[in-house]
Amino acid sequence: MSAANDSPCIRQCCLNQDDVCMGCFRTLDNILKWTAYSAAMRQQVLAECAARKAGQPRVILNRSGTDHDLK
Description:
Strand content: 5-15%
Number of helices: 2
Largest sheet: 2 strands, antiparallel
Helix content: 25-40%
Order of helices and strands: HHEE
Distance between the termini: 29 Å
């Protein structure tokens, strides 16, 4: 993000079963309310996003390069 009002959206939006975007890791509620959040709240949301991202399994191509294995 380059400015305080910028969204952390990376344009890879896809919600999982918990309504968490797999691109930016915000919840649907966070996405909808982003522009109303204070700078402090945005920083809290970004910290939560980083924690969600760190907890996600990595997708790695298997040796054939055709299928994906979760690690």
